[in-house]
Design brief:
Layout lengths: L18 E3 L1 H4 L3 E2 L2 E6 L2 E4 L11 H5 L7 H7 L3 H8 L3 E5 L12 H16 L7 H25 L3 H26 L7 H15 L4 H13 L21 H8 L10 H8 L4 H16 L3 H47 L15 H8 L2 E2 L3 H7 L5 H6 L8 H15 L5 E2 L1 H25 L1
Length: 444
């Protein structure tokens, strides 16, 4: 019944109709070069399309052999347009006797979640307030201008430079939340406009790459906290996370670092180094190795602007020091906010759960306040963001009570913490994982 050949291969019966497949047959096509997915009961051969997929090469492969309907709906604001791209890939449909959900997923939960999404769409929760994002961009540009004027007017003394660095780090962090909005296509009606402004914000305002971000971040959303699929839990052997990996490493006697002390050395190699060292190298390596020349030009425009502004006051050497100090502070902000909702949660291998259950075991919320909303770029509503990634963030609070009610109906745990409690849980979870590793390393 087809071996996953070219995208345009269509398999039909003698009457010209597409073939029917069982879930067992679909689940055989999961390897690189032979990948099928199911969307709305239709079977698609995406083996070659993965190379052209705007969301990145790997994200479709993470759903190979599975029902990708919920992920398809979550990621694409214009489903009619995307379905046109799917047509040439269509090779058949599920047999009438096959359930719509694979792997014993709760059909009632899936249906109720679909109905919830439709209800939120009807209530306007996916409609953008342009003024919100205009003001957010405006306050970033204002912070940048204030920092420059302070150096120009007050000079380069230590106290003034420290204040300028804090202002620039704040602008960088807030620009990070803003590029996140455009990257998720949650601002403009058309994907093209979102992509264009995304390149401007992440490239010209932050000196990073939209393509690099898309490749990493969409995988994270598609399969959060799942080893070998979510790059955010690839700790490069510096940390062991969750309850499964530490025991696995301990049993295999893997000891790249003393993991029982990782909750201590996290403060030295986690928040301080992620952006100024690891991300900085990865971004440029990715752009050059994959020929992302447009992203590279946007990125270079940021560095040209920064050094034109600050080398005239500090000289090249001290401008570089200031730049790295700003990155150092931004990195702390970024790591604590992004990890508070994920690292303390369940981290495991693929369990093939439905969309709601998969996102809820991997995410938690932080209580709402004006400060928390601003400080985290509304990622204190991490649950709602993961369930509805294209929803404008200013509407998360409207969706939250409905999501909580649906979780209560099906016994899915909906967690909400204080900001301080969430930060502390990062350290507690690293300490617990380190203890699990040590026990397995010594005793198993």
């Amino acid at each position: 019944m087809g071996g996953g050949g070219q995208q345009t291969d269509r398999i039909t019966d003698t009457n010209g109709r597409f073939s029917s497949y069982t879930w067992e047959e679909v689940q055989k096509h999961t390897k690189h070069g032979d990948q099928w997915v199911v969307v709305e009961r239709k079977v698609y051969n995406v083996s070659q399309w993965v190379k052209r997929h705007p969301g990145g090469l790997r994200i479709l492969g993470h759903y190979a052999g599975e029902d990708a309907t919920e992920a398809f709906t979550a990621f694409h604001p214009n489903l009619l347009l995307v379905r046109k791209y799917l047509k040439p890939l269509l090779i058949g449909e599920l047999e009438a006797s096959e359930p719509s959900q694979d792997r014993q997923k709760n059909a009632a939960l899936v249906e109720d979640f679909r109905a919830l999404r439709e209800r939120l769409e009807a209530e306007g929760c996916f409609k953008t307030q342009p003024l919100f994002f205009a003001l957010h961009l405006g306050h970033i540009l204002l912070l940048e201008a204030i920092a420059f004027v302070m150096v120009w007017y007050f000079g380069t003394g230590w106290i003034n430079t420290l204040i300028v660095a804090v202002i620039l780090a704040t602008a960088q962090s807030q620009a990070g939340w803003l590029q996140h909005d455009f990257g998720h296509l949650s601002v403009f009606k058309t994907s093209g406009m979102n992509h264009l402004v995304h390149k401007f914000v992440i490239g010209h305002l932050k000196g990073a790459s939209a393509g690099w971000w898309n490749h990493r971040h969409f995988q994270h959303h598609a399969k959060p906290n799942i080893f070998k699929k979510d790059p955010d839990v690839n700790m490069l052997n510096a940390f062991v996370v969750g309850n499964v990996q530490p025991v696995e490493y301990g049993v295999k006697k893997i000891k790249h670092l003393p993991y029982n002390h990782q909750h201590k050395y996290f403060f030295f190699i986690g928040p301080p180094l992620l952006i100024p060292v690891y991300f900085q190298f990865q971004i440029f390596h990715n752009m050059i190795s994959h020929g992302m020349w447009v992203d590279l030009l946007w990125c270079i425009s940021y560095y040209v602007r920064y050094f034109l502004c600050y080398t005239q006051f500090y000289g090249v050497f001290w401008a570089i020091i200031l730049f790295n100090f700003v990155r150092f502070m931004e990195s702390h902000w970024f790591v604590w906010v992004t990890q508070m909702s994920h690292i303390p949660m369940n981290i495991d291998y693929e369990k093939n759960q439905d969309w709601l259950s998969m996102q809820l075991v991997a995410t938690c919320n932080i209580e709402q306040s004006a400060f928390n909303d601003w400080f985290s770029g509304h990622l204190n509503f991490q649950i709602e963001h993961h369930l509805f990634p294209t929803m404008p963030r200013h509407n998360y609070w409207r969706a939250a009570p409905r999501v909580r009610a649906l979780c209560e109906k099906y016994g899915v745990k909906y967690q909400e913490k204080t900001l301080y409690g969430a930060f502390a849980d990062i350290i507690r979870s690293l300490e617990k994982s380190g203890e699990l590793w040590l026990d397995a390393y010594l005793n198993k």
